[in-house]
């Protein structure tokens, strides 16, 4: 990224988890815990485990040297383990990385990263949901035009729109509860996943190691079946779709002609137009969502691993996962900023809902007439009245009376009252807060 934009779209704590240092720290955690478990089982000397635990620390690692070695070898574990071995006294480093393979270490590091990062995603979604619920409560009676295909459809309230946004966020939170346990599944299998290098202690080593790392134990090696990381990243793209939809709605509602939303002053100045207050956060939400959409599908490519290992597929994953999580960190931050900065304009909502001269409520009128003349005839009659109203500059009620003598103009006007739609939105807002019914 151009560093001028690094603060604007900073992935924050989530990006830090997937940084070079964050990755190496978790690889070293694996090496320390593996040595400890193997000492418990009598596989390596206790003294060796203590020495590995002492030196396998991020502050002892020469990251510049590790980068050079990674460029030569293609993966970082040879260089990292060699540094740990060299740091140990009395040749005790020979017991480091005992029986493990590069992918064991890196997959456990990845599982630890995803577990921590997805937990942060959940915390941010909880705060975003609370902000949306606040909007739903505050504006549950604030009428605005509901729009389909960019045209006025039926009246809704802004609180109803916020409740729908929130329902999407809450569903993502439900999905997250299922994704985290699978993402937080560790790995120990040796060269091809059979634990052959651990003799008869492999399964017990794996069991104890996963418990110490705080990861779920796999039923079998998954080093060549990458659906776990793929699911986590594709889940992020679903979250991005939900948040991006909210951002696009807010952008459209904040356009000058609509004016139903605005954003607090202080961001979005123009270099030449002094009146501008550009929607920086909302625009960032949409842009970051789009970027994540295009990056996440790389994980489908990375899932097609030949046989027991595929370096080219792995390289794709090694780039895609950190990018997607970093984008998600920035997206969550900008969504929070967008909700903090949004300013609701009920007066513009009230003005806009009258732009069609009552046509926005003609479905109610149509359904009432359908009781007597049938739905198709009622639809044709009301549509004709809307055209007549526009062409002749008369009210819809007046146009209807002209087309269908005997109708009561006052009753028709009453049916076109947009405020009669408020209870429908309020009812649905209340329903959205109730717990979901259990499946029968």
What does this structure look like?
It is a single chain. The strands form 2 sheets. The protein has a two-stranded antiparallel sheet. Strands 3-4 form a two-stranded antiparallel ribbon. A hairpin with a 2-residue loop joins strand 1 and strand 2 (151-157). It folds into 2 domains: 3-350, Up-down Bundle (Fumarase C, Chain A, domain 2); 359-415, no CATH class. It has 440 residues and is mostly helical. The chain is elongated. 63% of the residues lie in helices and 4% in strands.
What features would you highlight for this structure?
63% helix; 18 helices; mainly alpha; 440 residues; 4% strand; 4 strands; 2 domains; Fumarase C, Chain A, domain 2; two-stranded antiparallel ribbon
Euclidean distance between termini CA atoms: 50 Å
The overall pLDDT average reads: 93
Strand content: under 5%
> What's the main sheet like?
2 strands, antiparallel
Shape: elongated
Identify the strand order in the major beta sheet.
1-2
Could you say how many structural domains there are in total?
2
User: In terms of structural class, how would the helical and strand content be classed?
Assistant: mainly alpha
Q: Number of DSSP strands?
A: 4
Instruction: Give me the CATH superfamily of the largest domain.
Output: Fumarase/aspartase (Central domain)
Total count of helical runs of at least 4 residues = 18
